Amino acid sequence: MSTLAAAPPRDAVTGDPARLRRAFGSFATGVTVVTVGGTSPRGMTANSFTSVSLDPALVLLCVGNDAVMNRVLAGTDTFAVSVLGAGQEDVARHFADRSRPVGAAQFDAMDWLPGPASGAPLIAGAAAHFECARWRAYDGGDHTVHLGRVLALDAVPDREPLVFHHGRFRRLAEPAEGERA
């Protein structure tokens, strides 16, 4: 029987946010753009996204409590997630830029199509799209954890995803022939 070590004092972890961010950055993630349609469409780059359940089909995303998108998601019934493909760093940077235009104008700089199930913009060239109905939201400290029930999806199986690791956009590296994966 093993025993768990006592948790370090809270200040040891939260007292150095830069150190905590660097440690979190050691976990490679995909990069998405979360979108909401309607009269004032909105997009936001997010890398806190994951699958949760196959039945029902659920996805999870975390959004900072102070982000405009957090308030937008709380007031909508549907949203979409575009999983960006390799080479779409410019799209990720655009939707992470707080000075981008508001409303529909923020989508003028790229190709997109309206999601048939959600009406939310779907980013063209993405590796996958998920259109979701808002399912639940939970307190997650300085973020809100949003769960969405997948209404529709599409994916391009051979499309390499955009990856974020240690503060940089990256590509997946395939092992050389003869190397183990």
From TrEMBL:
InterPro entries linked: Flavin_Rdtase-like_dom, NADH-dep_flavin_reductase, Split_barrel_FMN-bd
Entry's EC annotation: 1.-.-.-
MF annotations from Gene Ontology: oxidoreductase activity
Residue stretches making up the Flavin reductase like domain: 24-171
Superkingdom: Bacteria
SMART domains reported for this sequence: Flavin_Reduct
Keywords in alphabetical order: Oxidoreductase
Protein name as it appears in the record: Flavin reductase family protein
Species the sequence originates in: Streptomyces sp. 900105245
